[in-house]
Write a structure and sequence with these properties.
Layout (H helix, E strand, L loop, with lengths): L12 H14 L3 H27 L2 H13 L1 H6 L2 H4 L3 H8 L2 H10 L8 E3 L15 H10 L14 E4 L5 E4 L6 E3 L5 E3 L11 E13 L9 E3 L15 E10 L7 E3 L2 E5 L2 E3 L6 E4 L2 E5 L2 E3 L6 E4 L2 E5 L2 E3 L10 E4 L2 E5 L2 E3 L9 E4 L9 E5 L2 E3 L9 E3 L1 E6 L3 E6 L1 E5 L2 E2 L10 E3 L2 E3 L5 E2 L7 E2 L18 E5 L7 E4 L32 E2 L8 E2 L23 E5 L2 E5 L6 E5 L7 E2 L12 E5 L2 E5 L6 E5 L7 E2 L12 E5 L2 E5 L6 E5 L11
Parallel strand pairs: 1-2, 2-6, 3-6, 6-8, 7-9, 8-10, 8-11, 9-12, 10-13, 11-14, 12-15, 13-16, 14-17, 15-18, 16-19, 17-20, 18-21, 19-22, 20-23, 21-24, 22-27, 23-28, 24-29, 27-30, 28-31, 29-32
Antiparallel strand pairs: 4-5, 25-26, 33-34, 35-36, 37-38, 38-39, 40-41, 41-42, 42-43, 44-45, 45-46, 46-47
């Protein structure tokens, strides 16, 4: 019986018939039948290539290879436990038939060495044009074969390299088709790209993958499941690493849906509908990335394992629980990260619950992180669930989700109940956390411990706005004299495994003497110290760039890639260079002060701004962020008076400070 209609039209009828025979025999082995049902489309291309190669070998060489397959412990190690525990007879039987040997090789694709597949076009579709597209590359990587000859064959753990800063528009869904052992064919969940069914790394090089707004609804990327109930686990779940990629515009399930293993590194998941990332019983890691502006929530973790490091989850919205992060009976570890400006019904920032239907207790551990600016009806920052049920047969049963907080800053959130945290489950604190503001912890259902801080000042005196403070993601920097500075554990800030944290979210040193008392002690929250970016950081990486101003030309050695650039801005004899972040994008703008006129070249859009402020012969330009809005203010120092235009509202102010002839204004 042919379970996959696609293969009935395969031009080599011998190979198609051999495949049919293997599928028929697999009915007697549940795990193999399940694997062929789940992976049939991907496996057939690999099977066909292996069968053709084996058939072409001289008989003696083929028999030698079959002997190796029959005895291979390496092959047995990567196949399911059923093959390793008493199933070696099956391996032996399959190896000694041509079709069985081909199927073993196809199933054992993990034995292959890794391949690098370079995408050469921005058009992601399958087109036989001699250019390797993204869809063609994924299919070849999944199949470990040259299914599409425009791309190299996949082999083992593959790396797909995208063109630098490419923009790839997805206009049509890629719909996998499956057939059950009963002969029923059905369609899988549509996605913009083929389902990831093997170990693949996508090196984005700054590329964007976006769904066309006029296209039908579909999510962008799916990673194949770890489990296929009620069948046994398939041999190799999908394993995807995204590096330097932006995913946007996804609909249906949103940006990413992971049932296997997914790592998001130095990437942006933004502007998707149906959540940014869904983790359905899989293993998800988010590092140095931004999950922002998604509708339906930022991240949903359902019975999965989730680790978030050095990342920001911001600006996401959900009509249900967890605008930023919703955890249902999963295990979540958050370190050196920011959860800000998210909105949900409960748990604007984070919602943590137990398993209502299948049991299980939700667990969230938050370490040296900042949760601020989130909104909900209950639990503005965090909502932690607990509930008791009465049963006439078993009595009362109680389930509690667990929340653990270490050296984290939770302030400036809003809710009717529990502005910062509403706890109905189990909350573990008393570990150098900061809760609330103005003397109000803003928590419900537990009390801060004696080692925690409830500051007596307002939010604006604790931390600054969400902006680029250096590093790959936006953060809330601490303000001068913040009660969070040098208020962490005197024994050092450590991750959930007890290892000393060496850096903050931005990658800056973690243990710094921020209050000048002579002792280096870590701060509470995601950012160490004041959140100011480097004074001449033209590339926005949080590090100062070596810069020379020469006769109107700015010579900059960028620290991000050690590349040198020269930009002409200014050049009059009286020009004074006054670099600063005047547009608030986290990058330094070239600017000169000339006889009371400020000429600014904005890095955000390369536009120019000309503003008159100052002009007296004794004026000294002293630009800086005097109002704390993340933008440089125009200012001059004149005979002991500081004349400032606030960028936040455009209002001019003046303040007397100094005035002695020998005074030198510092900025």
């Amino acid at each position: 019986m042919n379970y996959f209609d696609l293969y009935s039209s395969y031009p080599d009828r011998t190979i198609a018939a051999a495949w049919d025979a293997q599928v028929k025999e697999a009915e007697m082995t549940p795990w193999l039948a399940g694997t062929l049902t789940e992976r049939g489309y991907d496996l057939f291309a690999r099977f066909a290539a292996c069968y053709a190669e084996l058939r072409a070998l001289p008989r003696s060489a083929r028999r030698a290879l079959q002997r190796q397959l029959a005895r291979s412990s390496e092959l047995a190690a990567i196949l399911p436990d059923y093959l390793q525990q008493g199933g070696r007879r099956l391996q032996h039987r399959m190896a000694w038939s041509l079709a069985g040997a081909a199927l073993l090789l196809a199933l054992g694709q993990g034995v292959a060495t890794a391949a690098t597949i370079t995408v050469t076009t921005n058009d992601p579709r399958i087109i036989p044009d001699g250019q390797c597209s993204l869809v063609e590359a994924i299919v070849n990587a999944n199949n470990d074969a040259a299914t599409h000859p425009d791309c190299p064959a996949g082999s083992g753990a593959d790396t797909i390299v995208l063109p630098a800063n490419a923009y790839m528009m997805l206009s049509n869904p890629y719909v996998p088709r499956y057939t059950t052992p009963f002969g029923t064919t059905f369609s899988g969940i549509p996605a913009g790209l083929p389902v990831i069914t093997s170990q693949i790394t996508i090196e984005g090089n700054g590329a964007t993958i976006h769904r066309d707004g006029n296209a039908p609804a579909f999510g962008l990327v799916r990673v194949r499941r770890n489990f296929a109930p009620p069948l046994t686990p398939p041999a190799m779940p999908g394993d995807l690493t995204l590096q330097g990629v932006t995913l946007s515009g996804g609909s249906s399930f949103g940006g990413l849906s992971n049932d296997g293993t997914l790592s998001i590194k130095n990437s942006i998941i933004s502007g998707n509908t149906g959540r940014g990332v869904n983790n359905n019983g899989g293993a998800l890691t988010v590092e140095n990335s931004a999950i922002s502006g998604n509708t339906g929530g930022g991240i949903n973790n359902y019975y999965g394992t989730l680790t978030i490091d050095n990342s920001t989850v911001s600006g996401n919205t959900s009509n249900f629980g967890g605008g930023g992060l919703n955890n249902s009976a999963g295990t979540v570890t958050i370190t050196n990260s920011t959860i800000s400006d998210n909105t949900g019904d409960v748990g604007g920032g984070v919602s943590n619950s137990f398993g209502y239907y299948y049991g299980g207790t939700g667990s969230v551990t938050i370490t040296n992180s900042t949760i601020s600016g989130n909104r909900a009806n209950r639990g503005g920052g965090v909502y932690n669930v607990g509930r008791c049920f009465s049963n006439p047969f078993t009595g009362q049963t109680c389930n509690f989700a667990t929340l653990t907080l270490n050296r984290s800053l939770i302030a400036g959130n809003q809710a009717t109940v529990g502005a910062e945290i509403e706890n109905l489950g189990t909350a573990n604190a008393n570990n150098f956390n900061l809760f609330g503001s103005n003397g109000n912890a803003g928590v419900s259902g537990f009390s801060p411990g004696p080692r925690d801080i409830v500051p007596g000042v307002g939010v604006a005196q604790i931390l600054g706005p969400l902006k680029n403070n250096g590093g790959p993601t936006q953060t809330h920097g601490l303000v001068a004299a913040s009660p969070a500075i040098d208020a962490g554990d005197p024994g050092g800030c450590r991750d959930s495994q007890g290892a000393l944290l060496q850096t903050d979210q931005r990658g800056f040193p973690r243990h710094v003497d921020g209050n000048s008392d002579g002792t280096a002690r870590c701060d509470i929250g995601a950012v160490e110290g004041l959140g100011f970016a480097a004074p001449v950081d033209f590339d926005g990486d949080g590090k100062s760039d070596l810069t020379i101003y020469r006769d109107g030309v700015w010579f900059v050695l960028r620290s991000s890639n050690e590349g040198g650039i020269g930009i002409t801005w200014g050049g009059a004899l009286q020009d004074v260079p006054v670099p600063g972040d005047y547009d608030g994008d986290g990058k330094t703008d070239q600017a000169v002060y000339r006889d009371g006129v400020w000429f600014v070249l904005r890095s955000s859009d390369s536009g120019g701004t000309v503003i008159r402020w100052g002009g007296a012969p004794q004026d000294i330009p002293v630009p800086a962020d005097y109002d704390g809005d993340g933008k440089t203010d125009l200012a001059v120092y004149r005979d002991g008076v500081w004349w400032i235009i606030r960028s936040s509202d455009g209002a001019p102010i003046s303040e007397q400070w100094g005035g002695a002839p020998q005074d030198i204004p510092l900025k």
